[in-house]
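Re-run with default settings, no changes from the original entry. Doing this only to confirm the output is reproducible before filing.
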Amino acid sequence: MKNRSRASDEQTPEYWISSTRRPVRSKRTRDPERTRQNLLDAAYREFAHLGYHAASIARICKRAGVSNQILSHHFGSKEKAYLAVLEAAYVAFRSNDPSLDPNAADPLAALRDFVTFMFDHVQENRDFVSLLSSENINKGKIIGKSKTLKAMYEPLIQRLDALVRNGENAGVFRPGIDARQLYISISALCFFNISNAYTLSAVLDTDLTQDAALAERRQHVIDFAMAAVVA
């Protein structure tokens, strides 16, 4: 497993690139969608590294190579640009959800794969964790205005619930597992050691960002999650 530090100011996470970008056209072709994507890329880095309040519209526009008026044309305001970044980041982060097969022949293996993917995805895309941490400090005031994110998660919870019920019927999962609570617990296990890596490293006197520590934590998270559901 790769030990990736936070992306530099000139990098954009691979999951974001592969999930949000359209094929590149000739630079001589006027392409409003490409301009909007360049703005989203620049805004993603700015908001992830500095948070909503410290982020600068002027820096976002400079990175994207456009004027403030162009950003205003595409998003209308700093708040709307931030919300667009949050929504696009969630869409990219959840792009692998359809691979969770609720009818898998081996429910235990399917759930293990889901937990493993969640952990690795969070580890490799730490700017997403920074975005979420910033918005939680902001008490979710902006993300709460999204009209798309709630609808995005319901299909995942439904698939997870179907997988849990199938595993319960097969006698491999313990009865009565709440899929929504299970998802929250898996998310917490995968996010906490990244969002709190430096404070935990300080108080435990060990560098939890190193490869060996991450590999140990990864295996513990998988084992802990699976032990919580087995019959």
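Residues 2-11, 22-29 have pLDDT under 50 and may be disordered. Residues 32-54 form the longest helix (23 residues).
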